[in-house]
Design goal:
about 60% helix
Length: about 120
């Protein structure tokens, strides 16, 4: 019985991955169509997460901070939330936090807000 359930779950996972690949192809083609951009697939890719766990949804302070910094960073919400949680773990330690490689300072502002 467990083997049958495992096979069904694997089939569902493979089906979901094929849908994600299809969506990725549509998004890639949309770039060409709407923006006259022909991105090189050897250099660029669409990042579509395969999980749906979104712990930041109920984190109001993070969401307010994200709204204020999202146009000043290249990092997506997934990476910014991870940074948010890492800073939460180390903010009470002795030492300093250094953000290196800032573009417009969005992630540095996020760090400052959390500290």
């Amino acid at each position: 019985m467990a083997s049958n359930t495992k096979n069904v779950n694997i089939k569902k996972l493979l089906f979901a991955k094929s849908i994600l690949k299809f969506v990725e192809r549509i998004l890639f083609e949309s770039l060409k169509l709407f923006f006259s951009v022909k991105p090189d697939k050897k250099k660029y890719s669409m990042q579509i997460p395969e999980n749906f766990y979104s712990p930041w949804i109920n984190d109001n302070i993070f969401n307010q901070t994200y709204k204020s910094v999202k146009y000043n960073t290249f990092l997506d919400i997934y990476k910014l939330y991870e940074l948010w949680k890492i800073v939460e773990q180390v903010k009470d330690k002795n030492g300093h936090i250094l953000e290196v490689g800032a573009w417009r300072g969005g992630s540095a502002c996020l760090i400052a807000k959390k500290v």
